[in-house]
Amino acid sequence: EQNANGTTTGVVWSFTTAAAVPLPGQASTPNPANGATSVSVTNDLSWTAGSNATSHNVYFGTTSPGTSRGNQTATTYDTGTMANNTTYYWRIDEQNATGTTTGVVWSFTTATAPPPGQASTPNPATGATGIGITNDLSWTAGSGATSHNVYFGTTSPGTSRGNQTATTYDTGTMVN
Description:
The chain has 176 residues and is mainly β. It is built from no helices and 16 strands. It starts with a strand and ends in a 7-residue tail after the last strand.
C-alpha cells in the first residue's frame, strides 16, 4: 500500500483455479432404440445425458443426421406426429462450457398405418323386415376409413357397386 508517507509491503496471497471442465461425454440410451421398428407416430425422443453435459443440440428428421432443432436443457424432444412407415434419424450433440461432443446418429422406423376399422350401425339394421322399396342404405364409417367399397344385391355379399366417400348408398327402387 502507498501514500505520501511511504509504502507498506503486503502479505502475499495465493489461490488455485479450478480444474478445466472436460468435454461432455456422448449422449446414450436412445429411446426409441437405434434400429427400432414399428415405433408409434406420436413417440417422443429421450436419451441419457453425457457426463458433464449442460445442454443438448437436437437433430431430427428423415435424412441423416437430421435437421437442427435447437439447443435445450431437457433430455426429451417432442417430435410432433410423424409419418407412418418412415425412417427417422436423430443425433444429440452434448455441450458444456468447454465445448461440444458430437453424438452418434440413431435411427428408427415408424409403424405402418393400421387398416380402417369395420363399418358399423347399418341402416336398415341387419335382419330388418318391412323396409320400403326406395330406402337408402347408411352406416357409420369404421375408424380411419377414408372411403367405402359398397356391395349390394339379393345374394351375399352382393355385387360391387364401387368405392365412395359417402356413408350412404342410393339403392334405387328395389323389388318387393
